[in-house]
Amino acid sequence: MKINNFGVEAWLNQYETLAEYDLAQSSISSLTVDDLYKIADLQPMDMYHEHQNLVLDYGPIEGSTQFKKLAAGLYKNVSPDNILQTNGATGANLIAVMAVVESDDHVISILPTYQQLYDLPRSLGADVDFVQLSPENNWEFDLAQLENLIKPETKLITLNNANNPTGRIIKADILQQIVEIARRVGAYILVDEVYLPMGEQHSFNSIADIYERGIATNSLSKSFSLPALRTGWIVAPDHLMDKLRTLRDYTVISNGSILDNLSILALEHSDRIMDRNRQILQENLQIYTDWVQNEPHVSLILPDDVPVSFLQIHTGVSTEKFCLGLLKEKGVLLVPGEAFEQPGFVRLGYCCENDVLKTGLQLISEYLNEIN
Q: Cα Rg for the chain, rounded, in angstroms?
């Protein structure tokens, strides 16, 4: 099996520990264990009492019954029987692609997007074509490109919604038209849905609720602020479930009993977590947009109330060189667009701690003034 270096993950692996101001991450400011227990109206010692007699075995292999019930409740038309717990959304995407794609299959993805969604199919021998998103079209999905690429033998369409790195969602009416195109040829649609829009004005539908061959993946890492739990899940049609279970046995076995318990606690109080995160996002987005309006060397197509954005940098150097210089001189970490095959842009996660965002943006301006 040949697979390309994972651009964004390799960048973070190499540089994130060197950053004083990390604006490269795409989660909303991570909760502590104490934060989670306060949200659940529990005391710190409750954690010990809850877990002191817990047997540290593998735990429920597919995720506990309660976890699956709570995860299914995030959707309109999903049964707990169609939920499998995974190691993050990356684990869910892995087994979804492996369950559907074989050598010489035709797959359609998008650019820019999370690299896993197109390089995994490539590594299995699939022929991958791309719907190219563009800033000239505000990073909107182009249905005409999809119509030109779709074939009778197309096996899978891979998307993420909202998009990483641009932060734009695929509106509900556009997603429905993507479904109709896929349905004509019987193609599956895999959608990584880890970035849930926080604004009520956005028309968002899960692919699992609207398409009989839709596969949705999600996790507690981004919108739920709990990346340390490494808890994800996959939602898939009945006829794929046994194959997914087999592939899961080869890749994860289980997430473990403690992580399952904490994940249940988070899902039981998801409304409170979302209220907390919505406030962080709204406050930080205002800080961010004010800075963009006053910084002449950048431009931004606003994200759709999700914690990730794709900022255009106007300099005479490559964005990779810019990011390396910014880290070295100012201690600020961004992800260069080269990691998403889109030079000229940087991924900036603006939902970190408030003071980190303010200082990080100020330092970016200082560095831009120094090099321009």
A: 21
Gap between the Cα atoms of 86 and 244, Å rounded? 10
Q: Is the pTM of this model over 0.90?
A: yes
Residue 364 near residue 42, CB atoms below 8 Å: no
- Neighbouring CB atoms inside 10 A of 186's CB total 11
Give every CB contact of residue 55 below 8 A, 6+ residues apart in sequence: 257
Tally Cβ neighbours within 10 Å of residue 228.
14
Q: Please report, for residues 58, 151, 170, the alpha-carbon distance to residue 80 in angstroms, rounded to integers and kept in the order given.
A: 20, 33, 26
For range 124-132, the mean pLDDT? 97
Q: What is the mean pLDDT of residues 346-352?
A: 97
pLDDT tens-digit readout, 150-202: 999 999 999 999 999 999 999 999 999 999 999 999 999 999 999 988 876 66
Count Cβ atoms within 10 A of the Cβ of residue 129 and give its class: 0-12 exposed, 13-18 middle, 19 or more buried. Answer: middle
- How far, in whole angstroms, is CA 180 from its chain's centroid? 24
